[in-house]
Amino acid sequence: MVLSSLWSYSCLFVLWCPVWTRVVSVGNVTESCPFFWPWQVSLQSSGRHYCSGVLIHHRWVVTAKHCNVRPKVDVVALGLHDLRFSPAQTVPVDKVFNLPQDGSFPPKSDLSLLRLSVPARFGSNVSPVCVPEEDEEPDDSWHCFTSGWGAAAGRADVDPDRLHHVRLTLVNQTSCRRRWGGGLISDSHICSHAASSSSCMGDAGAPLICQKRGTYFLSGVVTWGSRRCDADKPAIFTRISDYGSWITEVTEDN
Ligand SMILES: *[C@@H]1O[C@H](CO)[C@@H](O)[C@H](O)[C@H]1NC(C)=O
Ligand SMILES: *[C@@H]1O[C@H](CO)[C@@H](O)[C@H](O)[C@H]1NC(C)=O
C-alpha cells in the first residue's frame, strides 16, 4: 500500500537530498536542498512573496488567515527554492475559506484554506504533506522543523531568497503559558523553542512539519508571536490536528 502511494506521489513521498548538494548552515538555520520540502509554496502578489503556504492536496493549500490572501488576485508558486527564479508552477487562488472567528485577539483560529483554480501537478518538486489525525500529536519522539523564506532576516550570512529550515524542539503548554501568559495560549496552539532564529524566520504561514517513521505531517502553521524575534519566547503555531474535521469538510464540499 505504501509503495503504490509512493508512485502516485501521495503525502508518503520519500524525501532525499542529492549527495552533491552543498548544505549551508548559519547557527541553527540551514539552507534547504532545493525541493526537499515539496509541499512548501510561496504566496505571491504582483510577483512578490508575502507568505508561505503548504500543499495538502492537488487543489488545496493551508496558510495563516492573517496573511489575508486575496482570491482571483494572488497566486501560489509551487516547486520553488530561490525566489529569484521561476517556480515550476504558478496557480491563481480561486477561493479562500477561513476558520470561523470568535473575535478574540490575538486570533485563536488563524487558518485559511486556499482552493487553487487548477490542480497542482505532482512530481518530484511538488507534492503534498500529510494532514494529521486528531490522535497524531507530535511529542519528543518526533522530529520537527519549520521552513520558510526570509530566514533570519537581516543576517548578512543568510540568503533570504532561498528556502531555509530550522529544527525545532516543542515546548509543552504549561511552559508556553508561563512564558506568554495563560490567556494567550490555547490548546489549539503548539509551541516550540525559539531556537534562536526560528522565531525570526520572518515568514507568516510557514509550516511546522513533524516527522515520525519517515512520514511528514503538517502539525502547525506559524501564527502570531512568531515575528518578534524574541529568543526567550516560544514560537507559536496553530495546531492543525484540532482542525482536521474542518479541513476535511471544506475540501470535500468545495
Ligand atoms: C540552536 O538551537 C539550540 C536548541 O535547539 C540552542 O540551544 C542553540 O543555542 C541554538 N544555536 C544557535 C547558534 O542559535
Ligand atoms: C513541561 O516542560 C517543563 C520544562 O521542560 C517540565 O519541567 C514540565 O515537567 C513539563 N510539564 C508537563 C506537564 O509535561
Automatic annotation (TrEMBL):
<feature type="domain" description="Peptidase S1">
    <location>
        <begin position="25"/>
        <end position="252"/>
    </location>
</feature>
<keyword id="KW-0732">Signal</keyword>
<keyword id="KW-0720">Serine protease</keyword>
<dbReference type="GO" id="GO:0006508">
    <property type="term" value="P:proteolysis"/>
</dbReference>
<keyword id="KW-0645">Protease</keyword>
<keyword id="KW-1015">Disulfide bond</keyword>
<dbReference type="GO" id="GO:0004252">
    <property type="term" value="F:serine-type endopeptidase activity"/>
</dbReference>
<keyword id="KW-0378">Hydrolase</keyword>
<dbReference type="Pfam" id="PF00089">
    <property type="entry name" value="Trypsin"/>
</dbReference>
<dbReference type="InterPro" id="IPR009003">
    <property type="entry name" value="Peptidase_S1_PA"/>
</dbReference>
<protein>
    <submittedName>
        <fullName>Ovochymase 1</fullName>
    </submittedName>
</protein>
<dbReference type="InterPro" id="IPR001254">
    <property type="entry name" value="Trypsin_dom"/>
</dbReference>
<feature type="signal peptide">
    <location>
        <begin position="1"/>
        <end position="21"/>
    </location>
</feature>
<dbReference type="InterPro" id="IPR001314">
    <property type="entry name" value="Peptidase_S1A"/>
</dbReference>
<dbReference type="InterPro" id="IPR043504">
    <property type="entry name" value="Peptidase_S1_PA_chymotrypsin"/>
</dbReference>
